[in-house]
Design brief:
The protein has 15 helices and seven strands. It is of the alpha+beta class. It has a five-stranded antiparallel beta sheet with strand order 3-2-1-4-5, with no helix packed on it. Strands 6-7 form a two-stranded antiparallel sheet.
């Protein structure tokens, strides 16, 4: 079998590619700036969805998402009912101290506004999902799992205790599962017919194309969700590299894919979720780089523990919380490969709440304890991971140092 070709064969090609991506980055950044000036430049009516809502003193604080996917905060002194998930029409005002362009890219800024009207409920999918559950926790859990609508903080806390927030936030993992599931169904059902009438055509190629079409349709249904769009771009790039027989499992390939995504979406530079995704993929590459000689079932088993402990320092640095129930996270992640398509099928058939009693344990995780990871510790850890690419013994030293540090912090 011919080995996959590298992405580039000379430094000249790399320089040209970098210049092209730099020009694309400048172009998309200019486009984002024009959107920023339109949004904050004058008084205007916009349609937005209420993502979060909470009381602060005498006023309500609302986090809104526009139809373009922009997120911003606003306040209201009106006596509001629970508007979470509803679409509203608001009048936004320009201010003497408008948010900076950097705040706009970070998707964390405030705009004064006036609530004009509450629009009729139009999301029948969310309504259908929630009608299949009795417990508010499961209503929000499966709404988030299938529509990417975020859960309330107190409900999210249950998932944090088990270390499974990543399973609910739609990402490349979910899109890959959907694509793989659809491809499997197509190949399984059409293989005898295909071999008889189209033996000269690659069924796998067409199955993956159709599955990508399904994924595109799903992403279109979800709307302008940055994390999902980011995952779709990375999935499509991965498929393109695979069919072009270019080296996919390469740290340099990952580096260029990151640059491509940032060139297309400059705001991801400030997205913690994006860097979590990149870190996860890097750890997968690092595991396969050093342990590709293991059997398939051992790889499947050990890679989930490798990812859990490898991502733990980042989680502790940003969220500063640990629960002993998190130790079950690798097992729950492995079960998710079956759970996700099964729950999707049950919801399509109208029996989405059938497994809720079995999932009640998710509300019983051990309490979170505060565990902090300093910036220096995180930097040294990431430095160790980088040099682990070249020397396996550094990976072992980094893992040992991490284990000692975590035991010291948690004990």
């Amino acid at each position: 079998m011919i080995a996959p070709a590298p992405l580039f064969i000379s430094y000249k090609e790399r320089i040209v590619a970098f210049i092209v991506l730099l020009l694309i980055f400048v172009g998309t950044l200019t486009k984002e700036y024009l959107r920023y000036t339109r949004l904050i430049g004058s008084k205007q009516r916009i349609t937005a969805q209420v993502i979060y809502q909470y009381k602060k003193g005498r006023k309500w604080v609302l986090k809104l998402k526009t139809t373009d996917g922009d997120l911003f905060y606003t306040t209201s002194y009106e006596d509001l009912k629970n508007l979470r998930g509803r679409w509203v029409e608001v009048l936004i005002f320009s201010t003497k101290k408008p948010p900076s362009f950097l705040d706009f890219l970070k998707q964390s800024f405030y705009l004064p506004s006036y609530l004009l009207s509450l629009l009729p409920e139009k999301d029948k999918v969310i309504t259908s999902i929630q009608q299949q559950h009795q417990d508010p926790f499961f209503k929000q859990l499966f709404t988030a799992l299938f529509t990417a609508f975020p859960m309330e903080r107190d409900k999210r806390e249950y998932l944090s205790r088990w270390g499974v927030n990543h399973l609910v936030a739609i990402s490349g993992f979910h899109l890959s599962l959907i694509s793989s599931f659809v491809s499997f169904l197509i190949i399984f059902s059409l293989k005898p017919f295909w071999e008889k009438f189209f033996p000269y055509l690659n069924l796998t190629f067409y199955a993956i194309l159709i599955s990508l079409g399904v994924v595109f349709g799903y992403v279109f249904f979800l709307g302008a969700v940055p994390s999902v769009i980011r995952s779709l771009v990375m999935l499509v790039l991965g498929v393109l590299l695979y069919f072009r027989h270019l080296k996919l499992l390469s740290f340099e390939t990952l580096f260029w894919v990151v640059l491509i995504v940032l060139a297309l979406f400059p705001s991801f530079l400030f997205s913690v979720g994006f860097w979590f995704s990149v870190s996860g993929v890097f750890l997968i590459y690092l595991f396969l780089h050093h342990f590709s000689n293991l059997s398939r079932w051992k790889q499947f088993l050990f890679i989930h523990f490798f990812l859990f402990f490898g991502m733990l320092p980042l989680s502790l640095y940003f969220f500063k919380g640990f629960s002993f129930s998190m130790l079950f996270s690798p097992f729950l992640t492995m079960l998710f490969y079956l759970f996700y398509p099964l729950e999707l099928l049950l919801h399509l058939l109208g029996y989405g709440g059938a497994l809720d009693p079995l999932l009640s344990f998710l509300k019983e995780g051990s309490e979170m304890v505060r565990v902090e990871f300093s910036f220096l510790e995180l930097f040294l850890y990431l430095l160790g991971l980088f040099f682990s690419i070249f020397f396996r013994f550094i990976l072992y030293l980094t893992a040992f140092a991490l284990g000692v540090d975590l035991i010291h912090k948690i004990a």
